[in-house]
Every structure is written in C-alpha cells, then in structure tokens.
Design goal:
By secondary structure, the chain is α+β, with helices and mostly antiparallel strands. The chain contains four helices and six strands, in the order E-E-E-E-H-E-H-E-H-H.
Length: about 120
C-alpha cells in the first residue's frame, strides 16, 4: 500500500496469515518500517492467540532458511511450502532441507500443494 500526502510518498507494509479453508485472517500486521517487521508481528499474534497452524505457504521473498526457523519458533512444527529462489547457496538442515528436497524430487506434487 502506498500513501501520498503533500508530495511525500510513504509506504505501509503489511503481512497477513490466512486460513485457506476457512477464508479467514488468523494473523495480520502492518508496519511503516519494513515487511519483515509486520511478518514477525503477525506470527506473534497467531502464537499469542494459541492458533494451531498445520502448514504454511510463503512467497519467494521469504524463501530462506532463516524464515523457516522464525516460523518454527513462533508456530511450532509446521510443514512449510516455499518456492525456492534461484540462488540457493546451501541446503541447510531440518525443515528447510526437507522442503527443498521435496521441491526437487516431486515438483508437481509440491506445486499442487503450494497453490
């Protein structure tokens, strides 16, 4: 979202966690600083309210092992689906490695679940 007043352009970053089946927001946050801050606050809101998340789909912006770790810390053992970036330096360990392996070995199945 972009706000403009008196010739100055301001950005408002937002992040929403949505229950796909129920079509309901379970966590939402905005920030004037950056999208990562709104992402972390939305996760904190879900955790604070005790909402159980079984799986999570994130876009390419969040396609890094660090974001998988942040989600695991906030939400527990969550099955992750991310479209990996082109320039993955290492496979890492844990959920990140499992997810990348599933993407490479069973791309169609992975993408079907992602979308």
């Amino acid at each position: 979202m972009i706000l403009s007043w008196c010739g100055t352009v301001k950005f408002v970053y937002s992040f929403a966690l949505i229950d796909i089946k129920g079509r309901m927001y379970i966590g939402y946050s905005t920030s004037f600083k950056n999208e990562k801050e709104s992402f972390e606050r939305a996760l904190a809101l879900v955790r604070k309210n005790g909402i159980k998340v079984n799986s999570l789909r994130l876009d390419r912006y969040y396609s890094r092992e660090a974001y998988v770790n942040i989600c695991q810390e906030a939400l527990g053992n969550v099955k992750m689906y991310m479209i990996p970036k082109k320039n993955i330096a290492s496979l890492g360990v844990g959920e990140w490695c499992r997810m990348i392996y599933a993407f490479v070995e069973e791309t169609k199945t992975f993408l079907r679940e992602y979308f």
